[in-house]
From TrEMBL:
Single GO BP term: NAD+ biosynthetic process
Pathway where this protein functions: Cofactor biosynthesis; NAD(+) biosynthesis; deamido-NAD(+) from nicotinate D-ribonucleotide: step 1/1
Superkingdom of this protein's organism: Bacteria
Protein's recorded name: Probable nicotinate-nucleotide adenylyltransferase
Cytidyltransferase-like domain residues: 5-165
Nucleotide-binding listed as a keyword: yes
Residues spanning the membrane: none
Biological role stated in the UniProt entry: Catalyzes the reversible adenylation of nicotinate mononucleotide (NaMN) to nicotinic acid adenine dinucleotide (NaAD).
Annotated source species: Flavivirga rizhaonensis
UniProt-listed Enzyme Commission number(s): 2.7.7.18
SUPFAM superfamilies reported in the protein's UniProt record: Nucleotidylyl transferase
Alphabetized HAMAP family for the sequence: NaMN_adenylyltr
């Protein structure tokens, strides 16, 4: 089975994440998309994160009606901070019959050369890149690379930060979230 790994803190997961993941599930050769909830991104400050299991619960609620979209807590028990190369090695060992690919926004591809062992990732895995509106140029070494696939997905300029700030300011952010996620956030009083 071909699995696309969509890494993120999902703090919270929003409709932009779902639109992109579902687009890839329906319009690429990937059989499933796993939302890998990251406990700690080495490039982000940890203090703004909700608890790992609260974020996993939101991903579970957001994806439960989509057969091709799955929540994953695979990184919860791996050494932190989490590096993608280590997670990929662990997944290949645990699920040797599956082929794992990465899903990332164009903005992440621009900093991909800074990732730990990025050459090894590219050697062994495909990368599906969805469009983002951004200013910096993609490294020329990645242009036309046979393992990097640019996907014609909708451009979703929606961010978890925008949603968290909106909730904190008392704004109505309900349209930006899957219904089950909104209900959970509201019930738990998150981000207020």
């Amino acid at each position: 089975m071909k699995i696309g790994l969509y890494f993120g803190s999902f703090n919270p997961i929003h409709i932009g994440h779902l639109v992109i993941a579902n687009h890839l599930a329906e319009h690429s050769d990937l059989d499933q998309i796993w939302f890998v909830v990251t406990p700690h991104n080495p490039f982000k400050k940890k203090r703004s994160l909700l608890d790992n299991y609260q974020r996993l619960e939101m991903v579970y609620r957001a994806t439960k009606d989509y057969t091709k979209l799955k929540p994953s807590d695979i990184e919860f028990n791996l050494p932190q901070p989490n590096y993608t190369i280590n997670t990929l090695a662990y997944l290949q060992e645990k699920y040797p019959d599956n082929e794992f690919s990465l899903i990332m926004g164009e903005d992440n591809l621009k900093s991909f050369h800074k990732w730990r062992n990025y050459e090894l990732i590219l050697e062994n895995h495909h990368i599906y890149v969805y469009p983002r509106i951004s200013e910096n140029k993609v490294e020329t070494q990645f242009e036309g690379h046979k393992k990097i696939h640019h996907i014609d997905a909708p451009i979703m300029e929606l961010s978890s930060t925008l949603i968290r700030n909106g909730i904190k300011a008392g704004k109505n952010v309900k349209p930006m979230l899957p219904e089950f996620v909104w209900e959970y956030l509201d019930e738990m009083n998150f981000y207020k």
